[in-house]
Amino acid sequence: MQLEIIEQSWPIAGVFRISRGSRTETKVIQVKLTDGTAVGRGECVPYARYDETLASVAQQIEDIRPALEAGLSREQLSKMLPAGAARNAVDCALWDLECKRSGQSIWQLLDVPPKALTTAYTLSLDEPENMKQKALEHKLRPLFKLKLAGAGDLERVQAVRNGAPNARIIIDANEGWTKEIYQQLVPELVKLGVEMIEQPLPQAEDHILAELEHPIALCADESCHDRKDLANLKGRYEMINIKIDKTGGLTEALALKQAAVEAGFGIMVGCMVGTSLAMAPAFALAQDAKIVDLDGPLLLAKDQGEGFTYTAQSQMQPMTAELWG
């Protein structure tokens, strides 16, 4: 077995802005595993919020090179690397390699019949009028996810609602609110038809959510990485956002999903801003998710070859075997 670690930079179409900052490119690590015949690939997005860099993630993967090249299994991998971007890239490459070696698709391995999915489309944090114009430009998309930050958020949601009166709206504060902002905004957001609020408070303040009313479903993102986090979310959130970069790959994501459903949580499957190679394993995970948020490639100026095709209505067809799985 041979391992290749590839660092890549992909330009974002415009600026991607959330409560923690903005960027114009996304930096990813792609892992290639080959046995001389079959090639398996995986992609991860190192994320500063979780103290990850390109260098630190690449080093984590490099540290397990001997084990990988000796034929490391997914189960062994979960004991060698913690949940996070590095393990995700390797885990997804191992799944892809298994598909290529066996001649079976990911759908056969998971025993899941594939179907097209409709993804949310993200509107970056901006001035209200600019967000309204973006909504108008994408008026055929049925579901918008709005990046918010606190001050001015009600005006932002109102502007998008005016620009897209028939669209479904979910919002993501990326830990940018306070208890007071939550209490002020939520009654107004109910009137505007907002269906879900993602991670309103900082992770360390999750306990406050148990004291507040939830007329709109709350979804844990930064507060939920893998199965060990579920116990702390009961009574605080109604949903969880599963991202394979947080879980450390598809293997743990599948287990987290099953455990979360059994615990009564609704499922959202989301993504970092990555290419179609990063979306593909999550697409397999998202087949019966309540909310799908796999629009990463739509936010890029260019994408991987053999990438997903998105319609103007945000529909994604199942990926090709050439891309992944």
Which properties best describe this structure?
eight-stranded parallel β-sheet, 13 strands, 325 residues, alpha/beta, 12 helices
What can you see in these coordinates?
With 325 residues, this protein is an alpha/beta fold. The protein has 12 helices and 13 strands. The chain has helices at 54-63, 65-69, 74-80, 85-102, 106-110, 128-137, 153-163, 179-191, 206-209, 244-247, 250-262, 276-285; strands at 2-18, 21-34, 39-44, 117-118, 121-123, 143-147, 168-172, 194-198, 217-220, 239-242, 266-269, 291-292, 315-316. Strands 5-6-7-8-9-10-11-12 form an 8-stranded parallel beta sheet. Strand 8 (194-198), helix 9 (206-209) and strand 9 form a beta-alpha-beta unit. Helix 1 crosses helix 4 and helix 6 (128-137) packs parallel to helix 7 (153-163). It is globular. The mean pLDDT is 97.
- How would you characterize the largest beta sheet? 8 strands, parallel
**Relative helix content:** 25-40%
Strand order of the largest sheet: 5-6-7-8-9-10-11-12
The rounded Rg comes to 19 Å
Secondary-structure map:
Elements: E1 2-18, E2 21-34, E3 39-44, H1 54-63, H2 65-69, H3 74-80, H4 85-102, H5 106-110, E4 117-118, E5 121-123, H6 128-137, E6 143-147, H7 153-163, E7 168-172, H8 179-191, E8 194-198, H9 206-209, E9 217-220, E10 239-242, H10 244-247, H11 250-262, E11 266-269, H12 276-285, E12 291-292, E13 315-316
Parallel strand pairs: 5-6, 6-7, 7-8, 8-9, 9-10, 10-11, 11-12
Antiparallel strand pairs: 1-2, 2-3, 4-13
